[in-house]
Amino acid sequence: MNQATIKEASNYIENKYTIKPTIGLILGSGLGVLADQIENPVIIEYKDVPHFPESTVAGHKGQLVIGSLEGKQVIAMQGRFHYYEGYSMEQVTFPVRVMKQLGIESLIVTNAAGGINTNFSPGDLMIITDHLNNMGTNPLIGKNDDQLGDRFPDMSRCYDQEYIEHAEQCAMELNINIQKGIYVGNTGPAYETPAEIRMLRTLGGDAVGMSTVPEVIVANHAKIRVLGISCISNMAAGILDQPLTHAEVMDTTNKVRENFLQFIKKVIDTLPQ
Ligand code: HPA
Prior knowledge:
With 273 residues, the chain is α/β, with parallel strands linked by helices.
């Protein structure tokens, strides 16, 4: 993905609105409802944006929603691209490059994730403090474009510390019980085995999902400040004596919708920038 393709996509998007978004939002499985609350929205379907892939998962809409939320100018991805859909890492992270080109300085990434930490319960929200890239690849592999970022980007604070504290504070003020923890990014699409979950717990993981890590690596490369929020949609494999289903994931995210919306809106309203 070179700068020409990034610019073609961003030019196309920029010509559709007059505001300048400063916050990007990537909304995961069942969490796209946040974009429905954006005021005076300009909606652009992924399929219309040059070089954007199309999203294929149930529960993911596949469009950009640009407008104002809590008085901030935002650009939201209602649905994201997953590696397991067959897209390259470059394709998965292309929208982050485009949002950077559009001027965002902050990125809020959300996802549905399985709880590895046995202190968690389905429906909990978790602030991501760090991640384990367990995808076996990296979106920055290949020739580095120095204009986009460093060859060997530092990852020691890829989830912004001030944002972590800000999100914690917001949850406290709203009386929402919030967890903090480490997100493990797996490729999927198969859910993990119980043995894999025990391994990931030993490695220090608190929640597991099939997204987020590629986008966060690229955002960090692009020097965008990141806040990551997981919705614990289910306990990971082997913890409860029941099979995992995508229906359960969607069902739980629907149930925590109100808390999630209230929380993210407050985070956005007072986000340090
Ligand atoms: N594992 C991986 N990805 C997920 C899960 C899970 O248990 N729940 C939601 N996304």
